[in-house]
Structure formats: structure tokens, C-alpha cells
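Researcher: Next sequence.
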Amino acid sequence: MRHRFTSLLPHLVFSTKDRVPFLEPDFAQECHAYLGGIIENTGGRRIVAWQKGYAAFSVSKSGIHGVIRYIEHQEEHHRRVTYQEEVRRFLAEHGMESDERFMWE
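Model: Next structure:
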């Protein structure tokens, strides 16, 4: 096949180190803007908002609006579901194994 078509939409998942909620609202806005600038400058589109590690999952074109809604409401969502529970669920849904000794650094 001479033609190549790709539609790769990664959903990156990361947190503050040790999940410490130390970002004041004004500083958090600056951090989000800075990270967003990096994403946009490398050709990406920022819709996510850090820790040492991360997880990345492929998102279908038809699923992008659901991911955007999730990100827009993630603060509220994580009052009910912890970050760790969420990552474990994503990994299980994608059939990925992990070693939790190193996951939460």
C-alpha cells in the first residue's frame, strides 16, 4: 500500500509528584499554560492537564469528545475515584500489566 493514514490521539495521564495537592490556583494556571504551550509547540493540541512517570493510551477519533468531557470534569470526578484507581482501570481496560512498586513515584 503506497498511502499511509494515521490518526493517533494519545491521552496522557500524569500527576504531581506523590499526588501532593500543593498547587495554589494561580500557580496551577501558570503550570497548565506552560505545559499547554509545550504541547502546542510540538504540534499537539492541549486538552489535558505531572509526576515522574506517565501513562499514555490511544483514543479513537470517535471517542475524543468523551475524553475531553472527562478532562474538563476530572477534578470533580477524582473526588469519587482516586487517581490510582483510575490508572489501574485504564491499564486493565487496555490489557496492560504493571508493577505498582514503581507506579506512584
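Model: The helical segments are 25-41, 64-72, 74-77, 83-93. The chain has a mean pLDDT of 76.
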